[in-house]
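cron nightly-structures :: item 1 of 1
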Amino acid sequence: MKNIIKYAFSKNALFALIRRTRYINRWSLMFNVSKENVGEHSHEVAIFAHGMAVIGVNHHNRDYNAERIGIIAIYHELSESVLGDQPSTLKHATEDTTSFFKGIESEVEKDIVASLPPTLQSHMASLTLASHFKEHEKEIVKAADLLSMLIKCDHELSLSNREFTSARNKVWKKFEVYLEKYPEVKEFYEIHMGQSQQTIDGLVNL
């Protein structure tokens, strides 16, 4: 895709930009009882993706680099530091809009990486640009992304916010694909995520 981004990034912008994801709220078209920002979401996705990968390596003989998968997840919303969290009703309105936004996101990520010193660009590109990822890395991070969304929906529903009922059903259908395909995702969800509904008193026995 031809570079269509008209603005340029300051030198060494990447780490400052990823830090700013804490200022960008998610689920912007929906009423939220509990706000969630992109920084919080990315942190949670990284924990989940790393956990799934560790289970894959140790319980299912996967040839994963679990730490690499966790770091990829940390940066998986890098473009949103500039573009914001665009609603699905816009990004996926048509096939053309989906392609258009993916193209912009890709170009923004490339330009952010290019703001770094040349000696760092190759290493950071391998962790931030999807063209460098293996298929299982993309899919484990996507599974973790959907799980984070699912937990967000469940949390809102637990607070009697029916706004998230339909969203929860849609996310679950997508997440089920990864539950069936990856036993490590299923194990992580069934064994470790039941605890996510616990209070601190339920998790720590004094």
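cron nightly-structures :: done
The mean pLDDT is 94.
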